[in-house]
Amino acid sequence: MDTAKAPEERVVTETSTATEGEAEAEAVPAEADAATTEAPTAPADDVDGGDEGMVAERLQTAIQGVLENDINGTDFLTHLSRVRRCLSRDRDPPIDAVLESGALPIMVRCLREHVQATTLFEALWCITNIASGTHEHTIAVVESGAATEAVTILADPDAQPDVVEQASWLVGNVAGDSAELRDYLLQAGCLPALLGILERVGRTAKLSLMRNCTWAVSNLCRGRQPPPDFDAVRVAIPVCARLIFATDDEVVGDACWALSYMSDGPNEQIQAVIDSGATRRLAELLLHTSRTVVTPALRTVGNIATGNDMQTQVLLNTGVLEHISRLLSSTHDSHRKESAWVISNITAGNQAQIELVLAHDTIMPRLIEILLVDLDTKVKKEACWALGNAISGGNHATVFRICDLPGCLDALSGALDIEHEASVQCALDAIRAVLDVDASRETGEPIYTRALENNGCSDKIDDLCANEKTSISERASRIFEEHFTRIPVKGAVTA
After folding, report:
1. Are β-strands 28-31 and 17-20 bridged in parallel, bridged antiparallel, or unpaired?
2. 155-185: string of b/e by CB count within 10 Å (b at 16+)?
3. Dist. CA 134–CA 7, nearest whole Å
4. Any idea what DSSP says for residue 481?
């Protein structure tokens, strides 16, 4: 199953509102509180008022002031604040003009030298918004040395909280830009610095600082092509396992995203998350009222379910099936899809685990209902795998039990209409398992075979024998030859 990114970058505006992306490009808004360090700001009309020509002229005046004044002086701070206000515009911030002016190296000097905290904060704010631009803008920030200076600030236990918050925002934007820059920050020691802050400040920290640091950690753990070196990020697991008990939705959500990234891989990574003791809490979070929490918690739970049977059992022991059953009826397509994905990984396990799913009275009927009436193809694909794995991997008693559920055989027939090669293969394998079990009856008529003929499934299988995909046509041909061609046509004259 495909997974997708979560938070990438934030732009610090005058109201300090930020947005984060969610899985499968479904955006969920989130806000980070504005840093509270007070700095001299120019009146709005000094930088924003008038036509574009006047605004550009005022920007150039502010930049000139930054270039010409001593970085420790009040005049420099006033002009730097005006530049910051320009870079904080919602539409078309003048990032290129600021970079071309040569002001960025002066801002980086502020980070490197011991300027007053207010000036340092303004410089970080400017650089953060430059880094929130295009990839080329972010590269320019990194090449200027600003990112490594920000890491130095984060590692300083005596740094002002507002300055630390702004530095975390900067590295979060850089880490979210690309795998290359993420790895650059990991090598620079950014992750231990952020984790140190989260461990030091705990519950006493300003909320916005906790949010920004947790979000930056999640971006450092994020990515699949390529993923970060697990040995470089696994140190974040214990901290994130504690953060998912926080009371703030954004902190919990970003901590869950970090755990989802780190559990998206081999069983060793899944085990590291399990060993942190986070599994039960992640299952509980599936009942959270905020979608920004449920989505990453569900993704992490799904990753754990992809592990070996023992790891899947740890998840099942939390009572997760009760929570998953509710999400299968969610109004959010992504939650229904990922819930079905979780079930598909559980039914791909051992017989006892399949039985646990069957013992939950609502799960299999709901999967059947999805295949029959859900309008979202992605949800249907996952439901097909959940049902198909249970049938293909179950014993004869399991297959009888599932096939006797209302609508099951119609759902299997409908699954053949899904326009997805692997899903059709899965459905064909499940149908063959049903037919094999049906043929093994010692007494009585093969009722499932007859039902699949009467509901049009056999006709679909006949058509699939000519499918251009050999993985489908060969399966279909084998099924048709072994099961349907042997059934006499009612009323036919035999020799």
Report:
1. antiparallel
2. beeebbbbbbbbbbbbbbbbbbbeeebbbbb
3. 16
4. I
Which comes out higher in pLDDT, residue 423 or 205? Answer: 423
Pick from 257, 288, 285: which is nearest to 273 by CA?
257
Query: pLDDT by residue (tens digit) across 154-202?
Result: 999 999 999 999 999 999 999 999 999 999 999 999 999 999 999 987 6
What does pTM read for this prediction? 0.87
Q: Residue 436 burial (CB < 10 Å; 0-12/13-18/19+)?
A: middle
Return the bridge partners of 20, or none. 28
Stretch among 26-40, 65-79, 340-354, 373-387 having the lowest mean pLDDT: 26-40
Q: Please, what sign has the CA dihedral across residues 234, 238, 18, 61?
A: negative
In 3D, which of 124, 108, 150, 149 has the Cα closest to residue 39? 124
Structure tokens at 373: 């009436």
Angle at the Cα of 224 from the Cα atoms of 308 and 301, rounded to 5 degrees: 40
Q: How far apart are the first and last CA of the chain?
A: 52
Integer CA distances (angstroms), 96 to 100, 136, 141, 303, 417, in order: 6, 10, 12, 41, 51
401: left (phi > 0), else alpha (psi -120 to 50), else beta? alpha
The letter for the amino acid at 260 is: S
Q: Indicate the average pLDDT of the chain.
A: 88
